[in-house]
Design a protein that fits this description.
Layout: H1 28-38, H2 41-48, H3 50-65, E1 70-74, H4 76-93, E2 100-104, H5 109-112, H6 122-131, E3 139-143, H7 150-162, E4 165-170, E5 183-186, H8 201-220, H9 237-251, H10 255-264, H11 269-278, H12 282-292, H13 296-302
Parallel strand pairs: 1-2, 1-3, 3-4, 4-5
Helix pairs in contact: 2-8, 3-8, 4-8, 6-7, 9-10, 9-11, 10-11, 11-12, 12-13
């Protein structure tokens, strides 16, 4: 059992990297070249965890399809990466902000100012999730590079006790730091070039894994058609332009026609595409999508309609 003052020197993430033993005396070009070589490791680590990531995507998607929520929980860099992934979901996939939530030890202030001492409070992780009403219908991803963070371990234990789906994400072997979970994702990136600084390779691998997890889940939830984010929320000029281009490209219409279709659909890319392909008006298309969605492909097939592009 780890806790404040525990010796974590045996952990893979805390070991010294022989390749950078003279980091402070390296020429800058050599330092950059070394980082470039080492930064291939995160990709390899994520690839090695492909089976566990696949299981996690399908299991989390099943919870969300049934109305559950996804929580990321962590401290320090790990927690900040979870928050980053969570807050990107609403603008990218038009998801409800409550559907994917990031829980960081220390709360919002810890995003801007380090408060790593809070990670040692095992009970705090459970309390955060109790306050958010974590239930058996939900999914919880505990992120801890070294796998020993008490804040995260307490949260995962609570998740298991209420019957939530629990996923652990760490960068050390299971035998070095067991974590209570249903799905155990290990991203073995090796010792950092700056010893113990897991914002480096471990952080990169964690971000990559979270990118795959959240995107895969949202694909399974029908928020993507082909490789286009058809549930994108057009909340600023950049996203509005993207929405127009998606409608233009997939429906094979002009930019002006795409803009008109979006306006007629109340800004919904998915609805605009269904209306253009099927000839249904907004009310009928909305009802059809509610009955046959959320997948646009399935809704189009049910309407005996298709788009020129995928």
């Amino acid at each position: 059992m780890s806790g404040p003052g525990a010796d974590r020197g045996h952990l893979l993430t805390e070991q010294s990297n022989a390749a950078s033993s003279d980091l402070d005396s390296m020429a800058t070009a050599d330092l950059v070249a070394l980082f470039c070589r080492e930064d291939r490791r995160p990709q390899e680590a994520v690839q090695a965890a492909a089976a566990e990531l696949t299981r996690a995507i399908d299991a989390v998607a099943a919870r969300l399809q049934a109305g559950g929520r996804l929580f990321y929980i962590g401290a320090g860099t790990s927690g900040r990466l979870g928050v980053l992934d969570a807050v990107e979901c609403p603008p990218t996939f038009c998801s409800d902000p409550d559907q994917v939530q990031g829980v960081l030890a220390g709360g919002p202030p810890a995003l801007l100012r380090s408060s790593e001492g809070l990670e040692d409070e095992r009970q705090a992780g459970e309390e955060e999730l109790r306050g958010r009403g974590l239930a058996s219908s939900d999914a919880l991803v505990g992120i801890a590079a070294g796998g020993t963070t008490p804040f995260v371990l307490g949260a995962l234990e609570h998740g298991r006790s209420v019957g939530a789906l629990t996923v652990a994400l760490a960068c050390v072997p299971r035998e070095q730091a067991p974590m209570p979970c249903d799905i155990d994702i290990r991203l073995l990136t090796g010792p950092e070039l700056l010893t113990g600084s897991t914002r480096l390779k471990a952080g990169t691998a964690t971000k990559m894994a979270l990118n795959i997890l959240s995107t895969g889940v949202m694909v399974r939830l029908g928020k993507v058609h082909g490789n286009r984010m058809v549930d994108v929320a057009a909340t600023n000029s950049k996203l509005l332009d993207r929405a127009r281009r998606i409608v233009r490209d997939l429906a094979g219409v002009s930019g002006d026609e795409a803009g008109v279709a979006l306006e007629a659909a109340g800004g919904s890319v998915k609805l605009a595409l269904l209306m253009l392909a099927s000839g249904l008006d907004r009310g009928a298309a909305t009802e059809h999508l509610a009955r046959h969605g959320p997948s646009l492909r399935v809704a189009l097939e049910a309407a005996s309609a298709s788009l020129p592009i995928a």
